[in-house]
Amino acid sequence: MGAAQSVSEKSIHEFTVKDARGKDVELSNYKGKVLLIVNVASKCGFTDSNYTQLTELYNKYKDKGLEILAFPCNQFLKQEPGTSEDAEKFACTRYKAEYPIFQKVRVNGPDTAPVYKFLKANKSGFLGSRIKWNFTKFLVDKDGQVIERYGTSTAPLAIEDDIKKALGEV
């Protein structure tokens, strides 16, 4: 059942998502930026290392064209139990996240958020398109095309070279 769903969109920039307060955000606002899109959770064993490293990457590359888009998700052992605003407050207070934290989404199943259908259709993982756990990361180029997908166990700092390459620094 992990087959990739077909999507008509050709770029991540064609999507509109909701911020933590429910306001529409057009991803076309990020044209020309390299995006690291991550499904996050506040109660996961990978939370501390991922949020710490995401903040470090963001602070290092935000002025060079990197944007991190964090989507809280409660699908994996209910590890993001609060509201979207709770998730945003947690990330911004505890980990000094300055990048956007969006509304909670589903990344698998019949109610998968359209942006995640697109991401999964463009880069499947080790065992198909299904997202296995929190902190799955997608690297998207300046034109809105998915470059690579990284599993939970790939630390954000481990993909720094790929980010630099996408930014045109290598």
From TrEMBL:
It holds the Pfam family GSHPx. Residues 6-170 form the Thioredoxin domain. InterPro entries: Glutathione_peroxidase, GPX_AS, GPX_CS, Thioredoxin-like_sf, Thioredoxin_domain. GO terms for molecular function: peroxidase activity. Keywords: Oxidoreductase, Peroxidase. One of its GO terms (biological process) is response to oxidative stress. Gene3D superfamilies: Glutaredoxin. The active site is at 44. SUPFAM superfamilies: Thioredoxin-like. The keyword rRNA processing does not apply. One of its GO terms (cellular component) is cytosol. Belongs to the glutathione peroxidase family. This is Glutathione peroxidase.
